[in-house]
Structures are given as structure tokens and as C-alpha cells.
Automatic annotation (TrEMBL):
High-level lineage: Bacteria, Pseudomonadati, Pseudomonadota, Alphaproteobacteria, Rhodobacterales
InterPro entries: Homeodomain-like_sf, HTH_TetR, Tet_transcr_reg_TetR-rel_C_sf
Domain spans labelled HTH tetR-type: 9-69
Name listed for the protein in its UniProt record: TetR/AcrR family transcriptional regulator
Record-linked SUPFAM superfamilies: Homeodomain-like (SSF46689), Tetracyclin repressor-like, C-terminal domain (SSF48498)
PANTHER family: TRANSCRIPTIONAL REGULATORY PROTEIN
DNA-binding region as annotated in the record: 32-51
The UniProt record lists the keyword DNA damage: no
Organism annotation: Paroceanicella profunda
Gene Ontology molecular function: any one: DNA binding
Keywords: DNA-binding, Transcription, Transcription regulation
Length: 191
């Protein structure tokens, strides 16, 4: 039975959405096509009607994940009295730590990207780093002598804190990592 073009596009979008969450949660290598298609409610055989390869899907899923996380961050900082503190306190939070499927692709996929030989994936993640640095530079302290340096330090601190807080088995240490880094990066300011 042939599906309509509209249904095919809906199916494709569903697969991309599921992949965007699964890849951030389990990593690229931890996301198999058969399980992914099953989670999307579709057959494994339908995958290659929608995508050229797993790499093709990964790029589309990471792009979708980036768009989703960017919208979340924009919503969190728009209208905040101190957008930098608001961004740091959201990014370095238990809420973000505990939801990798909805979180930032940098924290979830940095090591996968570093090991990847796919130039398109590396370029996509490089663009995301550049976007974050641009945002953080624009939000840097007015008193900063070097806003870009502050942006790089803030981004590295946020990502490092999130990765470490997810990696340690001790919940108290995980919370402490987030709290200390959030306080240090936001300089005690309220977001």
C-alpha cells in the first residue's frame, strides 16, 4: 500500500525527531536503524525510502536537535534581566543534565563528533560552536577586557560541567559540579 506524499513527509519528520532525541541520549553509534524505526512506529525497510544512509539521517537529526535547543535557549534568555546568567543557570542545571534527549548537542555529541571522519557533521558542530561563541560574546560582561575569551571560557565551562555531571555516579557530586560551575560562570548573578 502506497502512502501519500504528505504521510511520507510526516513519517520522515517523525524519524528525524526520534533520531534527534535518541542520538543525543545514546550517541551516534548507540543509535541503530532498526530500533530507531521501531520507536518511530515504522518498519526497518522503510528507512532507505526516506534517507540515503545513516549518516544522512544523523546530519538531519543533529540539525533538528540544534534548532530545537537553540529555540529553548532563546526562550530562556529573552526578557531576562541578565541573559548571560539566565543562559548559564539553565545550561548548567539538573533539568538540562537529566534530559539529554532534549538537551544541547554539543554536550551530548562532542566526543562522537571528535571521533567522526564525516566532514559535514564536524562542520555542523563547528557552526554550533561558532553560534554559541557569538551569543556568549554578545552577552559578555561590559567590564570584560576580552569578550571572546570570556565566551570561550564560559562555553567550555558549561559543556564540561554538563558532561561531568552526567558522567559521575554520585548524585550529590553531580549536583555540586553544576552548582559550583553555575555560580562561578554567572559570577553570583541571578538570571
Amino acid at each position: 500500500m502506497r502512502v501519500s506524499n504528505r504521510q511520507a513527509q510526516e513519517n520522515r519528520n517523525r524519524v528525524i525527531d526520534v533520531a534527534a532525541a535518541r542520538i543525543r541520549e545514546r550517541g551516534i553509534d548507540g543509535t541503530g536503524i532498526a530500533d530507531l524505526m521501531k520507536a518511530a512506529g515504522l518498519t526497518h525497510g522503510g528507512f532507505y525510502k526516506q534517507f540515503r544512509s545513516k549518516d544522512d539521517l544523523v546530519l538531519q537529526a543533529v540539525s533538528r536537535a540544534i534548532d530545537s535547543a537553540t529555540a529553548e535557549i532563546d526562550a530562556r534568555i529573552s526578557g531576562a534581566d541578565d541573559p548571560l546568567a539566565a543562559l548559564v543557570r539553565f545550561y548548567v542545571s539538573p533539568e538540562h543534565r537529566d534530559a539529554p534527549a532534549r538537551g544541547c548537542s554539543l554536550a551530548s555529541l562532542a566526543t562522537d563528533t571528535a571521533r567522526s571522519d564525516d566532514p559535514a557533521l564536524r562542520a555542523l558542530m563547528g557552526d554550533l560552536v561558532a553560534r554559541y561563541l557569538s551569543l556568549l560574546t554578545s552577552l559578555a560582561d561590559d567590564a570584560s577586557d576580552d569578550p571572546r575569551r570570556q565566551a570561550i571560557s564560559t562555553l567550555a565551562g558549561m559543556i564540561g560541567a554538563l558532561v561531568l555531571s552526567r558522567a559521575v555516579p554520585d548524585p550529590a557530586l553531580s549536583d555540586e559540579i553544576l552548582q559550583v560551575v553555575a555560580e562561578d560562570l554567572s559570577h553570583g548573578r541571578e538570571g
